[in-house]
């Protein structure tokens, strides 16, 4: 299923396909707010239902439509070795029936309501959504609450859907050289953190996965105290709260498993990997260890550094003709066909600052790597201008305004902030904080976080396009379906 990204994630220029956000306490998710609702200037309100489930409502009366989402604070980082990919597999299985609905009936009913629906899995969370005419909100709340509490399917459905997931892995990872490189890069960058594992899972784990693996994961993590309902659109807050209590507030809750810390040890030196795959062009990606943005109020020095890295990434790659574009891809001596950056500084796990590029004809991946690092060194040496920062900040403000024209984006924003343990108005606060970042702060982080001991480099070595692609083989004893 496709994934969604919050505005916070977009501002951070996330390039991995996963959401990275604030780190809650290791043992349990952030404490639920009191039953007294909190509200933002835009009218968003948050409530705690009687079973501990969170409800977030954002009224927007501009069109007779509504988005209904359920966010669960569980993702691939909560898996254990041997069952990688089970969070994503379970996401698929949530469409395969309940105790009262046969497989496929959920989607058929949403379509009959004039709606569209899908789901997404990341390292940090899993989410489900429907966009429907606002007068059909009760119908989808009834359907989704039943699915959340009563997911049920036969083993044969699991076996068939598991093959769909395997094919998804083949098409999106194994047959995509840069995706394969990204997977290997994360595996090499992290040692203890579960971020080292792919969201879709290792093929050997998928081959060995059983229906009970998915059922056990569902029983562990799908409980009201680990979830939030988000509704945005043409709705009345009091009515939505009443419906949520009716359909979600009575669902039984249970204790969550203990979330033990899996702290990533300090890196002790530069790491390099090479990935061979049929491809037309080489590619190089640099991953630097970076500080995380853990809060948007009462900032620590680490939080301020993370904000400055977000601004640095935008200086490099935040608009057409930004620094990486000008320095690497333009002119007679250009070394790259494309170059990009991403400050991945939010998440329940460790953070990274990414730089990447595709060599131009006649140039090498090493030349692109050197040019990328030279641009960082130039900022560390010479700094950035106030005019550059003003341009970046103006574009962020404009993009925020445009994105809020979409009720889907509003719902994603609110759900993503809840996952991180951030306040409802985190995006407004973030914009205000980004406005305060100075050229000196940007220069300081460029000098601080880009040394060899913080770096992992992955290089794609192109092979002939007619070379056979290696396919993952099933684990010994695993059955084929």
UniProtKB/TrEMBL annotation:
Ranges for domain Peptidase M16 C-terminal: 209-395
Keyword ATP-binding among record annotations: no
Compositionally biased intervals (Low complexity): 33-42
Keywords: Signal
Pfam families reported for this sequence: Peptidase_M16, Peptidase_M16_C
Cofactor(s) the protein requires to work: Zn(2+)
Domain Peptidase M16 N-terminal: 60-200
InterPro entries according to UniProt: Metalloenz_LuxS/M16, MPP/UQCRC_Complex, Pept_M16_N, Pept_M16_Zn_BS, Peptidase_M16_C
Ranges where the record places region Disordered: 22-42, 462-481
Membrane-crossing residue ranges in chain numbering: none
Signal sequence range: 1-21
Family statement: Belongs to the peptidase M16 family.
The protein, known as: M16 family metallopeptidase
Native species: Acidovorax facilis
